[in-house]
Design goal:
Distance between the termini: 78 Å
Number of strands: 18
Largest sheet: 12 strands, mixed
Shape: globular
Oligomer: single chain
Helix content: 10-25%
Structural class: alpha+beta
């Protein structure tokens, strides 16, 4: 009894620490997996993750599966963990509160799916057995992402499952999977895009024979980073739009790829890809959030989660703030001081073809301009008083 009480106390304390110091994880993206062992392999996968300014990631996955035997029926599934550090209540129908537009098409025919609530054992040990919600209840006193078994008082995280029946013909089969999910965020991270890659190893070949990752910034600019441990086998390249990338070393955290991308697509392609880790795309303020030497404007994002800088009303600070939306779109500054300043910022990509326009400025960007303009007025008032 004392041991159980100690465990619950530690769990409660840990939960409170996370609430105070960490971020909000709404949902992670995931691979489609077979519910049971199968001899079907993943011959090809093209994973496209599009990041916009609306707070969501769009996922489009084109699979090619190889059925080496006779035609067969396979139960397939998709798992999405319950939101973490969020106030969303359990959806007992099994539909995740932050996943939208979930579709699966197989060999050009749409598949229907069903949902349920399941226990979450992590990406290495998925178990799609539906949860008996008469015996398992949400552990409201500890966390809304946890459930408690009434008989033994056991506590486990839960997830939402999407199931469907796939009829595989002999040879090659094509599956197209799409959905949207809400971006997560945290301390020092304007946004995060978590995506589980490791479940792909549940297929017969324990790898993806031909894998392509595409990360898109659609009608916007994004500045983000991710660990390089997964991607040593081949180089990245920008295949459309404007973009650049570099490797950076974060203290105590290893090497990262840092990417600045505007209306463009970043591509990575490899053969015989074995995903031994999962993908986490983080806003690039992760790299600079604890740096005391951070320049005004080092990280820039158009979304409403973008953090505002405080400044002391200096004229130069105001000029930087109100010109950030223009720099974000590649405006080439005629003013030498502004031109020199923005060329110091790694994400800045000048575009002489861009015609200066504020038609697509976001509410957050207009706030930046207003904040920057206040300092200009203060400087004018101070000059007037001195006269």
């Amino acid at each position: 009894m004392k041991t159980k009480f100690l465990f619950l106390t530690i769990l409660c304390l840990f939960s409170m620490m996370v609430q105070a110091n960490d971020g909000v994880v709404f949902v992670q993206g995931n691979q489609l997996v077979p519910l049971k062992e199968t001899d079907i392999s993943v011959a090809k996968e093209v994973l496209t993750i599009s990041i916009g300014d609306d707070g969501y990631a769009k996922v489009d996955v084109q699979y090619e599966f190889m059925n080496h035997g006779k035609a067969k029926t396979v139960e397939m599934g998709f798992e999405a963990e319950a939101p973490y550090n969020d106030e969303a209540q359990m959806n007992k129908e099994g539909k995740h509160p932050y996943i939208y537009d979930f579709t699966v098409t197989m060999n050009d025919k749409p598949l229907t799916y069903k949902n349920s609530v399941i226990l979450s054992y992590g990406e290495d040990n998925m178990n799609f057995e539906p949860l008996d919600l008469k015996k398992w209840k949400v552990a409201d006193d500890i966390g809304l992402h946890l459930v408690r078994y009434s008989k033994t008082d056991s506590i486990m995280p839960f997830a939402y499952a999407y199931y469907f029946t796939a009829h595989f013909k002999e040879g090659l089969n094509k599956v197209h999977h799409t959905y949207r999910y809400r971006l997560s965020y945290g301390v020092g991270r304007t946004f995060e895009v978590p995506y589980w890659l490791k479940p792909a190893m549940r297929w017969a070949n324990r790898q993806i024979d031909d894998f392509t990752l595409l990360i898109k910034a659609e009608k916007t600019a994004k500045h983000f980073c991710f660990s390089d441990s997964l991607f040593a086998a081949a180089p990245f390249k920008v295949v459309d739009g404007m973009g650049k990338m570099r490797k950076v070393v974060r203290p105590y955290d290893g090497e990262y790829f840092e990417v600045a991308l505007r209306n463009g697509t970043l591509e990575w392609h490899a053969k015989n890809f074995v995903p031994r880790a999962n993908l986490m795309i983080s806003a690039a303020d992760l790299l600079s959030s604890f740096s005391e030497s951070e320049k005004l404007g080092t990280f820039y994002d158009r979304s409403d989660k973008y953090r505002m800088w405080s400044f002391d009303g200096k004229k130069k600070d105001g000029r930087i703030l109100r010109n950030l939306p223009y720099a974000n779109r590649g405006y080439v500054f005629k003013d030498k001081w502004l031109n020199d300043y923005f060329n110091q910022l790694w994400w800045y990509m000048p575009d002489p073809t861009w015609q200066a326009s504020s038609s697509d400025f976001t509410p957050r960007e207009w706030k930046l301009i207003r904040e920057g303009s206040k300092s200009k007025k203060k400087v004018r008032r101070r000059k007037s008083v001195r006269k």
